[in-house]
Protein 1
Amino acid sequence: MTENLSKTVSQYIGPNGPDPAELTLCVHCGLCLNYCPTYLELGTEPDSPRGRLQLMRALDEGRVDASPRVQLHFDRCLQCRACETACPSNVPYGRLMEATRANFFERRPKSLRQRLLWGLVMRRIFPYPRRLKFLLSGLRWYQKCGFQNLIRRTGILWRISTKLASIEALTPNATRPFFHPRDIYSYSSSTTTKTSAALLTGCVMPFIYGDTHRATARVLSRNGVRLVAAEKQVCCGALHAHSGDIETAKKLARKNIDVFLASEPDAIVVNSAGCGSHMKEISHMLRDDPEYASKAAYFSSLVSDIHEYLVKINFEPPKGVIQRSITYQDSCHLVHAQQITEAPREILRSIPGLDLREMEHPDRCCGSAGIYSLAQSELSRDLLKSKMTEINATSAEQVCSANPGCMVQLDAGLRLFGDRKTEKTERTLHTIELLDESYRNAEGTQYADKV
């Protein structure tokens, strides 16, 4: 009996595992249940934050085995961290879930698809901008040549594989001009420079949402911020950390710390909520690293979400009118992890003519959650359908958010479940793009983006 118990514990406990003291903080009150999207969708206790915390403790104490059935409940977690907002005991659920997944990551057997995803895509392509650009150039060709339109119009994938068709439906638009960190040199401040900031360009975002980066650069320059290029930056590692590949996440964090601190910015500005949340918490991830612990703490202290940063520096109120109704989707890692809810709305309400229509649960996860929409495609689709029901109920002409993953997911939702009363619903915008649009409308300025 003792031998079996020891074997079970040794399979689970690892250097990156959850803190046993933090696991005991949960008092089982259940206030988290009605905030958890997977519990609301599935109605099962093990798929709630409280249930997963109990499973973590049982694994930690050797009372259950790390079986595929147990792993499934952890895999279903979106890590949206809505439970943290609801929790009266301040349980650091997101941190505990990352640590739990880190323990599973190297130990669990992986299918061929999972080995390809992590061994090739996540470790050998995502961290390297040139390789990722090459991969996404293929996607760009697929979309520009009209092949994607043909596939979607005929519906052939739905007849072949529902899962494959669901994944294809989430394919982001890669036809817009790409963005490179050095492109920020094209945007010089039109006012007296007040401060300097380096912009995280990230991994996928420069190639999928280059327009958002260009809008961000223009808005910052307009508000007297001198932009600093951290040209050799890499993926922030949020996707890796959330999925349990903690060692790769640490490697990427060290690289970015060196690159960003070398550029000596007054702030590091992030327009991707998931990346910003992770970067603010890098100091905890590297707390035991003798070389990087103090540097990581300083690095994290410089990180600001673009919305909180603009409010902090007293952004210039825009004067250009945008006659449009919009609804705002709170990005989970902005509202729950970073506790930022008012700043994006302050920016949206400052835009003349813009009609902000709140949906019923703007802070409930849309089902994107990094690579969750690929790994748990059916559940992700169900969550997206529920989200689109709320969006459609607002009758808003456009949806906006503050995270690229949400934008990809919501764009898919508009195609699959949207109310097509207006063509304006065909694209989800970042809140900063709306602010930039208002500035441009006031000046009558059109910007020619580089290809």
Protein 2
Amino acid sequence: MNLRRWLTPGIGIKRWLLVVFFGELGLAVAGSLLLRQVYADAGTTGPVQSLLAFISLQFIPSVPRALLLAVAGVGLFGYGSYRVIQALMAPFRTRDGSPLVEVIYQKRFLARGPRIVAIGGGTGLSVLLRGLKEHTSNLTAIVTVADDGGSSGILREQLGVPAMGDIRNCIVALADAEPLMGRLLQHRFPGDPATSLGGHAVGNLLIAAMTAIEGGDFEEAVRQVSRVLAVRGQVVPASPTPLTLHARRRDGVEVDGQSSIGRTTEIERVWITPREVRASEDAVRAIAEADLVVLGPGSLYTSLLPSLLLSEIRDAVAAAGGLRVYVCNVATQQGETAGYDLADHLEALEAHTMAGLVDVVLANNQFRARVPEAWTGEPVRLRWPAAGRSMPRLVLEDVVQPGNAHHHDPAQLASALLGILEREVGVRRRAASPRSA
């Protein structure tokens, strides 16, 4: 089984085994020519001829002799190759006991996957990344830095660094050893976070420490932490500058801070301060090079929009050559999107950015998932905006977790997005091909 895996397409080993085979074949031909010459020079009789005749199995008829040598050669070549691979790879066997060939095959397969950028934050973005990382390693997560609650808020206030809670969650989601890494980075120390390590997540402290090591360069700190933790793809803060989110309700009351806005109803408008800040260069570059740009899922006002309110990020998405998809939440959230349907989500997105920002809207159409106890939300109803303007295409798929009507299913969501991308690529190719006469 192991040897067959080494010979599967994508590993990059068969070509070199073929080179070795032809090298050995050349040696065999050279050896046969040498034996033939020695046999001819020694005459027709004598002990040398008898020995050579025995070595070359001349006592067996020609056809069976050829078949026997071919079978023996193939067997020895295969067994020898297997043992060489085992000997060379034994020191590099993975800790979980899985064969190294599986790791190599997976990495080579993932390296050929589409270039995908996911913009957002919170639980929704982490769920999306868990699904997509099984299909490609060319992933970029652009994460909001406007969080001001919990451990992130305290470290932000004390150290002046951008919020890192959502960044930590995305790093955990993309880590190769996710279950173990998740338990470590998400562990919180007991106690009062205002006076000790209490309440702080290990991952937040790790990013804060790396920021100090990198001389206050938050972007480089996130890069280094991602490298240390063997993250598939890259996690990029939307901006290296700490941002503050503000909201205005329909009654004119203004609310400051992401944690407070998340509990606010009837939001009319949100904005960030400082108003004009530099977006991450890695984020802008990744959007320009992406085959697929995914907005959401996640809290509409407090996770998705803070990144899109950065003019450089918004303009990069608008100018992106790749497919742009908005993934609508499967459920409303108590507070900021209470009572929202699909049209409300899309209209709020376009009101804060621009019309035509996305090409496709992906929404859930399966409403039989189990509702968690004490759930305060409701499934997002599929009301579509009235016609009369250029609208994105609507795609309906079953993307909800069967056991939790409040969350997307990572595998089903990733599969739906890749299916949309594949269909779009096919449409564009047909449109670009010359029409037959």
